[in-house]
């Protein structure tokens, strides 16, 4: 018969504290058992579902005998001993001290972080800190009766687990794969799975490329303290490639920094030392400000691609201070840019850029509605001193330097009208001051005043069917007035204009400050939304812009040129089953598509597929002599619970060739993770060549890899 919880306090407290002279007021032990008795020798005997709780430790057994004379516990199994939250001991029988910190367990297993298991013929507990094991087999793989050999294991004569330092020490260790010995170590140390940072070797990676041959990366991690570390990664390849990669990280009370770099000698550029360095950081400042900075340098244009370090061909270094609040945004930054693109000359590009922005929103006031105030400054510098030469034919003199200050005030207010209509009045006014240097055509100081106002009418129609499906149709008409004027300022930040459903009813569709949308026009649009209780959603929008005069402000590809713009059409479909469609296009009166983007995604129980197709007509005004027609496909398929296949491809229909293709295969179970990848980059330039890249990575779960366990294998008879 099961008894209530019995607090065997005096026995355990006296046996623990008598020898040390400590008072009985110390932490007490609790004992739960079906029956408790004291034999003629004065031994306490607990049997049947025994549980002992003491100082965060928990012990379960079928029978426990406490001998007061020896201050020992004799325990019969099956035994389950939980020491904290990350360490579990399982044994057949044991003899332990009364405080559970000393003793011997036989036919025992130690389980760490629910991942790594260490089975031993005998386990000895020492001082509550060390666990010493004899004749050990360590693995995180599931072992079945029909297949008792794990995928991998470490066998050792003796193993010591330091619970405080969270380290495991192996003596005369042998590493086996599928039962076959592959490596032997006289001494081996590794962190236990509960330790996130420990000095030592990390998982190696095998990489094969057409330019470097086959190579291996072997990272070595050094914990320099609780808040900083460094990782050193030698990379040796078969084609005389010698590289050392470094990563340094440090955390501070208010932020962190990370520095990555590499030095290389190879046969791609014989006799040259190739290198790169990148640093990033973020810190919190007083008054809710945040400081962010980043910097990057590289020795040559192809280095990052050759070594799989990134695909950037324009590197920027910046320092920025920002603050974001509910109705306020403040930002100040300085940016340095260096290009490695073929055909670009750094002296003719803005190499140093500085910006400051103050944006504040207001509600209420004498006019009601919502208003905003935005103040900006901008400057950029080119190192070229040629003020009357346009060597790259981009429409900008090589040495042009620009400084600008802008102030904008906007306001908007809505009214509810009869029959459910919504009326809106909005407007803005702005002032810009420019100073342009080293430009024979635009040199000097300029000012510009511009504004606009609009009246807008919306009439939403709502219908709900018997099945709960809601339909919303909303026609919108917006009348916009702004002065025509004549643009006399150079345009550098607003040369590419996107016309979509998000800016159909905007006063100014230019993305930057240098250009403003001028002249009166009417924006017409219609939106439709269908929302079903099942989770299906359909949203569609269409519209067009009509102008009183064509001022020649926009390019053909933008879809906004002419007295009548092209037709804008967009649709978005989502379903609870994982299907998604997002499509927008711009079509002229002849039904010629000038711009189109379609994204389709399907997410199933065993697969995921996403594809994006982009079409943009050629337009020399946007520095695009040829049209863009590209397809990007990305997918994965779960072959089994443990195997997953990945693929990616990018195809250029205009060039009739693939830009990139990649396939991959991943295997994950409870004890191992294997990643295989094969990719091919087909594009080339004066600085990079087409390359094929093969990668292999093997992580053993439970050995400090940081890779989580996958689905466990199923034991079959």
Question: What's a quick, concise take on this entry?
Answer:
By secondary structure, the chain is mainly β. It has a domain at 9-195. It contains 2 helices and 41 strands.
Protein architecture, described:
By secondary structure, the protein is mainly beta. The chain has a domain at 9-195. It is 2% helix and 57% strand. It is built from 2 helices and 41 strands. It has a 26-stranded antiparallel β-barrel. Strands 1, 2, 3, 4, 5, 6, 7, 8, 9, 10, 11 and 12 form a 12-stranded antiparallel β-sheet that branches. A hairpin with a 4-residue loop joins strand 10 and strand 11. The longest helix has 9 residues, at 9-17.
Map the helices and strands.
Blueprint: H1 9-17, E1 30-32, E2 35-38, E3 44-54, E4 57-67, E5 72-83, E6 87-97, E7 103-112, E8 116-126, E9 130-139, E10 152-162, E11 167-177, E12 180-191, E13 200-201, E14 205-209, E15 213-217, E16 220-225, E17 228-237, E18 241-251, E19 255-265, E20 274-284, E21 290-298, H2 303-306, E22 314-325, E23 328-339, E24 352-363, E25 370-381, E26 401-416, E27 422-437, E28 444-458, E29 461-464, E30 470-481, E31 521-531, E32 537-547, E33 567-574, E34 579-587, E35 593-603, E36 607-616, E37 628-638, E38 643-652, E39 657-668, E40 672-681, E41 691-700
Antiparallel strand pairs: 1-3, 2-3, 3-4, 4-5, 5-6, 6-7, 7-8, 8-9, 9-10, 10-11, 11-12, 13-16, 14-15, 14-41, 15-17, 16-17, 17-18, 18-19, 19-20, 20-21, 21-22, 22-23, 23-24, 24-25, 25-26, 26-27, 27-28, 28-30, 29-30, 30-31, 31-32, 32-33, 33-34, 34-35, 35-36, 36-37, 37-38, 38-39, 39-40, 40-41
